[in-house]
Amino acid sequence: MRVLILGGAGELGSHFARLCIDSGHSIRILDITRFLEAWRLKELQIAERVEYVWKSSFDLTREDLEGVDLVLDCSCQADRPLGTSSPKYTLFENFLGPLTLLEALKGMNSKPFLIYPSSSVEFLGVPREEQPISEKTIPKPTNFYGLTKWMAEELYLTYKRAFEVPCIIVRTGSCYGPMMRTDQFIAQCIIKCLKNEDVTVRSPKATRTYTFTGDIEEFYKFFLLKFSEDPEPFNGLVISNGGNAEYKPYETIEAAMIIKELTGSESQLNEGTYEPGELINGQPVFQWEKSDLAYKLLGWRPKHTFRQGLEKTIEWFGKCA
């Protein structure tokens, strides 16, 4: 297949590119990151094996999509706190970006299949008694970032119904692993613990179902195999690939304590304030993901426990220190 990855210099996009290359597919990446600064592609040893276009997805044209079989849209604004401080920018990136893509291809006779990687952040407002979260759960965002991700999901599905744009929505839990963004809490906690610096744990009792990137990569590996055989079962599907081998959610402070233990750190863990949307009626948000759809369709389940994933992540950060 000819595969186009929007935002291919990022964490998911770069790993997906390697998977596609290993499967014999040709890759074109569109990204606003300069090629020489696309360090993940170099670390994965695929930088010279992709066609790299330094271009924003907002300038995507029909010509960019001609002859493409599969599109992975990773070009969104990826930072939840930025959705609070810059809601207009987040709306522009997370909604108008997909709209540009969908408008560019809606009139094409031969349309590529679209993958939209969404986020389970949109479920932080789901009451505990309505959990665990599955594909049938109705999102209840508690922050603007989660709202825009849900809006984008509905945009894709609307264009599927109205213009027969083939697509799949893939919802992922809170990701962590080697090459993750260093602004995320897991990464920051690891970095500070490796340096024996004190850690402020914001939203300490808020709960997430953390997902190791190695498990996410395997999900997409299984997906590509099945998709190449028959794409139709995936058209219009909403599927989750979040979770860990225990299917267990963890509080932020609990995650920090495990990181401190695994690093043998002398860091002091200090409970901080709650971020906007992390408290509902005075109670910390709770997120527990558990879905069997990926197993039924692909034979996939997460293999790593949270601790196992952290061990590999800490090892990678240790080498970078």
Specify the helix fraction band.
25-40%
Say which CATH homologous superfamily of the domain at 2-176 and 212-243 and 288-303 is assigned.
NAD(P)-binding Rossmann-like Domain
Proportion of residues in β-strands: 15-25%
Rg is 19 Å
- Average the pLDDT over all residues and give the rounded result: 95
Sketch the topology as an H/E string, one letter per element. EHEHEHEHHEHEEHEEEHEEHEEEHH
Shape: globular
Termini separation (Å)?
38 Å
Question: How would you characterize this protein structure?
Answer:
With 321 residues, the chain is α/β, with parallel strands linked by helices. It has a domain at 2-176 and 212-243 and 288-303: NAD(P)-binding Rossmann-like Domain (Rossmann fold), CATH 3.40.50. Helix content is 39%, strand content 17%. The protein is built from 11 helices and 15 strands. It has helices spanning 11-22, 39-43, 62-65, 80-85, 87-105, 144-163, 185-194, 213-229, 252-263, 293-298, 306-320; strands spanning 2-6, 26-31, 51-54, 70-73, 113-119, 167-172, 174-176, 199-201, 207-208, 210-212, 237-240, 250-251, 269-271, 279-280, 283-284. The strands form 5 sheets. Strands 3-2-1-4-5-6-11 form a 7-stranded parallel sheet, with helices on both faces. Strands 7-10 form a two-stranded parallel ribbon. It has a two-stranded parallel ribbon with strand order 8-13. Helix 2 (39-43) links the parallel strand 2 (26-31) and strand 3. Helix 1 (11-22) crosses helix 8 and helix 7 (185-194) runs parallel beside helix 9 (252-263). It is globular and about 60 Å long. The model has no long low-confidence stretch (mean pLDDT 95).
